[in-house]
Amino acid sequence: MAGRRTFDTSRISPIIALLVATLVGCDQGGGGVDQDDGDGDGFDSWEDCDDADPDINPAAPEVCDGIDNDCDGDVDEEDVAHAPVWFADADDDGFGDPRSRSAACSAPEGTVADGADCDDGDASINPAGIEVCNGRDDDCDGEIDEDDAEDAPTWYADADGDGAGDPEARIDACVCPAGYVATDDDCDDARDDVHPDASELCDGADNDCDGETDEGIPTWSGDVDGDGYGDPEDQVESCERPEGYVADATDCDDADAAVNPSATEVCDGIDNDCDGSIDGDDVIEAPTWYPDADGDGYGDPGAALESCDAPEGTIADGSDCDDSAPGINPSATEMCDGIDNDCDGHVDGAGAADAGEWFRDADGDGNGDPAVMVRACESPDGFVAVAEDCDDSDPEVHPDAAETWFDDIDSDCDGRLDPDPCVSPPPATTVDVDETCELPDLSLVTYGLCQPGCGEDVTVLVQVANTGSAATEVDTSLVVYGRTSAGALFELARSVVVAPLGSGVLSGAFSLVLELDRLRPCNSLVIRVDDDETVTECDETDDEATLHLTGICWTAPGG
């Protein structure tokens, strides 16, 4: 132990004996103490810790042998000469860091004798490591990613630059050298048109490097009909296309140029487009057929089928609007029943067989205009079923209206402007003479004569009375007109009527024989008093005179 002096106990007794003898001798002889160096190493036994071994003494160097060589009381202490050097092994890979070293007879904890680790922080990096392509010096040989790296890929020379390498010219390296590629499938590295991706040509060379020469020589098919499609039964192999041959081999009839895969399939019993089907579903402009479920001869347009031949249960007509009802089809009769019976797109239209006639009633008097009629199952707004109105612009004119004398209106639509005189005799018509003593026009008066029938001659007596003063003289004309069926007037007779002074009845009253068959209608007469005659005398002190029709009567022949 350091600091303490140790002795070999086996030597104690001899030493003591020697020391006693020496002392005795000194005492007997009276002289100095004798020195004893048993091993002859220059150190007396009292200071030599092993006087039997000349290599052990205070001047001996301490060495790593488990002995206190320099007799300082310590064994193999730190100042041992030539002690082994130990290196820290932080990553515990068996190789130490040369920059972290210590000398000691025994390895300190965490150290190893080998100090060749170039990265003591990574256990995979050391002199025994395997070099790989990773940008590091894995085996601590001072080189990074050298060619002998375990995973270094193989590269192949590409002399012709076609992207495919020569399998006979190869090197291993972590990084591809210039002029090298990763593939080794070039079969001729002196020709850039020969490589695995090249197209095989008919040139005697293996252009695509598949080990075969000029394989896949084109097959040509005869095209006798010149439609661009060849006959699969007439084929030759040749690098060049022979005359009259094409690359296609899909013609199913090389004798007919209209038959080929690009032709249009039509209904003719021929496979026009060479698809293996005759008059198949791809026929262009094939007839359309319609199912006729109700058997009425009209098909359902919503279930059309195109086919060269009519499928069972179909017909050519597709105009049925209800294929579940045989009574509904384009030939059915439209009725007022809320159904489109005849499939014309209209329900209960004007053409319905039982549609009613409705007449416009513009004036709202309940009677319609016979000239404006519509047919419909139900009355349209503003229309009525009665068509007897002779003036649909006047609500006061209709068959139920009361006729008025002398208003020039056929109020009750019976064809006469005035009431029937046999039922309602006309009132007297009065006209006043104005201050000029001229007689104004009387309104046109239509008399419906109570004659027994048309075509007979009758005598008409017209009387005019003057009820004015005796000083007034009236000189005028009395005219009888007929009315045509179109309503125009024509003159039948004229008579000058003179009312003498003081006369009570016009002396010019006359009777006239009329041919009634000239009248339209045949009971229509118009009596009018004209004032186109000059007043012969006028008493300005008495400017009124009254002239009125006193009566009209007729007498049948022989009456």
Q: In words, what does this structure look like?
A:
By secondary structure, the chain is mainly β. Among the domains are: 47 residues, no CATH class; 126 residues, Jelly Rolls (Sandwich), CATH 2.60.120. The protein is built from one helix and 23 strands. A four-stranded antiparallel sheet has the order 16-23-18-21, with no helix packed on it. A four-stranded antiparallel sheet has the order 17-22-19-20, with no helix packed on it. The protein has a three-stranded antiparallel sheet with strand order 2-1-3, with no helix packed on it. The longest helix is centred in the first third of the chain and has 18 residues. The radius of gyration is 76 Å and the shape is elongated. The N and C termini lie far apart (195 Å). The N terminus and C terminus are likely disordered.
